[in-house]
């Protein structure tokens, strides 16, 4: 049970990293800006949300590595991936006001169904 909770925590850090990265990059338009390469790198290096995302990815990676020492990869990876997909989809709907689509909902349902079939 402890490692399943750790898996959830690792997924939580992964989702947090995605959300921080999305928020941190909003409006920067790094590709089409007229800044030099150094200026573009500086934009990232002085962005606290970017660093928060990196730290969250790191924490999630370490936790996931610990989880893999006790849970089969064939279980841990699909569960973690689908949990992250569902959580990010829901956060993107409610926090970033992204659009709810029939295809998106169908995709989430298929992901959940696929993992449920794998775990049987």
From TrEMBL:
Localization per Swiss-Prot or TrEMBL: Cell membrane
Alphabetical keyword list: Cell membrane, Membrane, Transmembrane, Transmembrane helix
UniProt keyword rRNA processing, yes or no: no
Source organism phylogeny: Bacteria, Candidatus Yanofskyibacteriota
Any single Pfam family the record assigns to this protein: Multi_Drug_Res
Record bears the keyword Cell membrane: yes
Entry's Gene Ontology molecular function annotations: transmembrane transporter activity
Transmembrane stretches, start-end: 49-68, 75-96, 102-119
Protein name: EamA domain-containing protein
Annotated SUPFAM superfamilies: Multidrug resistance efflux transporter EmrE (SSF103481)
Membrane topology recorded in Swiss-Prot or TrEMBL: Multi-pass membrane protein
Principal subcellular localisation of the protein: membrane
Similarity section: Belongs to the drug/metabolite transporter (DMT) superfamily. Small multidrug resistance (SMR) (TC 2.A.7.1) family.
Highest taxon listed in the record's lineage: Bacteria
Gene Ontology CC, one term: plasma membrane
């Amino acid at each position: 049970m402890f490692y399943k909770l750790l898996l959830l925590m690792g997924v939580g850090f992964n989702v947090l990293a995605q959300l921080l990265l999305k928020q941190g990059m909003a409006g920067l338009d790094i590709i089409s800006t007229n800044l030099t390469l150094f200026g573009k790198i500086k934009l990232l290096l002085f962005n606290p949300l970017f660093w928060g995302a990196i730290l969250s990815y790191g924490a999630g990676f370490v936790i996931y590595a610990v989880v893999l020492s006790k849970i089969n990869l064939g279980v841990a990876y699909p569960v973690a991936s689908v949990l992250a997909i569902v959580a990010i989809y829901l956060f993107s709907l409610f926090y970033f006001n992204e659009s709810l689509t029939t295809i998106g909902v169908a995709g989430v349902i298929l992901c959940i169904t696929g993992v449920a079939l794998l775990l049987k």
